[in-house]
Amino acid sequence: MSETIEQALVAPRYLAGGGDPGWVTVPLHRAAGWSYGHDPLMPRVILTSPDQLTQLRIDPDPDDPWWTIRHARDAHRPGWAATFGARTPVEIIAAFTDALTDPPGPAGTGADPFVPLREAEWDTPRHLYGLASPDGIALVEHLGTAGNDLWTVETAVIESPTIWRAYFTGSTPTHLITAFTRSLADQTPVARDPSNIPGFARDRMSVGTRRVPAADVASALERRVRALAARHTAPPAAAPAPHVPPPRRTR
To answer: DUF317 domain location, by residue (predicted)?
Structure first.
């Protein structure tokens, strides 16, 4: 009988805590070819895309966002930036980076980021702009006007500090923000080590447990890397159809 370990399943996922950053960084490096370079004496991670236009930084600074992704201006579109707080679940950040590195990804525009939220029955809270989760904990807003706009995501419990925030500048491709909001609204619980369940908002989350093969947990990241790497493998070119001469006419 294979060894099993206990996993906690946390819902809603936006209260699950940050999780393992490697869920994002390892696939960026191994599946999408992002290079890494940082001072080993500094507690930060820097990854750069193969075209040198996009950079991911993780800086464990309690006063600033831990995660920052910046894309430089190029010939086709303006630069943009996205930031995520330390407690943003890595599964939700990964939805953004997976869409960013998807080879056949959509062009600069995509579905309205509010669409996945409306489909999950998020609604407009009183006296606020944007959409709030049914439990009132998460809020997504689109503020400002074209050219000077900003998407914000905030999770907070009344009379308690904000749990985490995310920001997207208005020039961020909308299909990337939509990937983020789709994962944000996903009602599927996320797995965590039972000893690492966040202490904040415990009365607002559901925590179940299950026993799973230890080997499955250990190989989950490797399976994710392989699946994402497969997106970069072009299918073999189809062989040309053989030439078939036209039928001869007979009398």
So the answer is: 48-104, 133-190
Contact by Cβ (8 Å): 2, 217: no
pLDDT tens digits for range 7-48 = 999 999 999 999 999 999 999 999 999 999 877 778 899 999
102: exposed, middle or buried (Cβ count in 10 Å: 0-12, 13-18, 19+): middle
Q: How many domains does the chain contain in total?
A: 1
* Token pair 């493998």 in the structure block, residue: 233
Is 175 contained in some domain? Answer: yes
Strands 206-213 and 45-48: unpaired
Query: Would you say residue 1 lies in a domain?
Result: no
Question: Scanning the structure block, which residue is given the tokens 């966002």?
Answer: 65
pLDDT band at 102 (very low <50, low <70, confident <90, very high): very high
Q: Which domain holds residue 49?
A: 19-189+221-230
What's the whole-model pTM score?
0.89
Residue 151 main-chain phi, psi, to 5 deg = -95, 130
- Say if residues 21 and 218 touch (Cβ distance below 8 Å): no
Residue 125 belongs to some domain of the structure: yes
For residues 68 and 38, give the distance between their C-alpha atoms in angstroms, rounded to a whole number.
Answer: 15
Q: How far is CA 67 from CA 16, 70, 85, 199, in A?
A: 17, 10, 6, 22
Q: Are 47 and 29 in contact (CB under 8 A)?
A: yes
